[in-house]
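Subject: Peptidoglycan-binding protein structure
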Amino acid sequence: MNTVMRKSVLGIAGLAFAGGLAAGPLHHAATAPIVGSAGSVAVAVQADKPGVDKGKLIPHGVRGAQSRIDLGDEQTANVKAIVAATKKAGLDERAAVISIGTSLQESKLENLGHLGDSNDHDSLGLFQQRPTSGWGTPEQITDPEYSTLAFLKGLKQVDGWQDMPLTEAAQTVQVSAYPDAYAQWEQQAADLVAEHWNS
């Protein structure tokens, strides 16, 4: 960016910031996607809400090509339930990113019941947890708060999970047949945490 353009952009940003201070907080600011130079989409934090430390969300950067899906109302409600359960467990935004990324891979954030012949054994819920593997009863596993807290309990038992890439942390808890599949959801999971952590 040339010097003149840079000064113009900074000047406009300064005026916008000063105008925001003079006018007071915005109460109905809409969030809009911001597309970065690498093509990733980051969700803008609403002006009247404190921001999330983006460095905590993806401390090691993403690994490999990223996938993204559009979420419906039920999936968004499940994101909010995962965030709330993460806070209830006393864990930070990074734990929420790992949880949401794991659920995106396991169920696309849908609270899955028994799928008949399509079921992976007796896997249920947001994280495809199995009653026969000791995750809880079918009723418990299909409760978003319970299933998230169960996942986080497993995560907390992983030494150094805070410093692991999402796919390694998730795989250590989930023991999936596709251990690298979680990595593709890290950017969308981080964007969702940035959007909903302080909402």
